[in-house]
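User: tokens in, sequence out, please.
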């Protein structure tokens, strides 16, 4: 089972994934770990959330309906939002996609919480 590795009190994480089970799991685990979390099922909803809520890190799926992760990342850069992104995706050639959008880190789906959580904490500015 996963465990917390860092102090994350007060850190905000936006989970952007079209899979409701993944969103629910991550919001639950991250909240238990001390993060304030919000979730969105696509990039458009995520952008709307970021207009009124500050995130320290975004956990981002790439392949989603309405607005995919690539477009979302492009839009936040256009808006000059300097928010680290941890890509969580089953996309092929994930490293190349992550470089393209300037992601802070990547985790392939299916994922392990013991791998994902420390990467989120690092990207959010937690002290490892």
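Assistant: Sequence out:
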């Amino acid at each position: 089972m996963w465990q917390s590795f860092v102090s994350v009190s007060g850190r905000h994480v936006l989970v952007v994934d079209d899979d409701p089970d993944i969103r629910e799991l991550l919001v639950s685990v991250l909240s238990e770990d001390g993060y304030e979390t919000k979730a969105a099922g696509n990039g458009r909803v995520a952008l709307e959330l970021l207009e009124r809520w500050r995130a320290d890190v975004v956990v981002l799926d790439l392949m989603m309906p309405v607005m995919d992760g690539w477009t979302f990342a492009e839009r936040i850069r256009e808006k000059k939002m300097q928010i680290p992104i941890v890509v969580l995706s089953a996309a092929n050639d994930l490293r190349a996609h992550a470089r393209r959008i300037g992601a802070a880190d990547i985790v392939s789906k299916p994922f392990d919480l013991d791998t994902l959580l420390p990467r989120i904490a690092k990207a959010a500015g937690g002290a490892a």
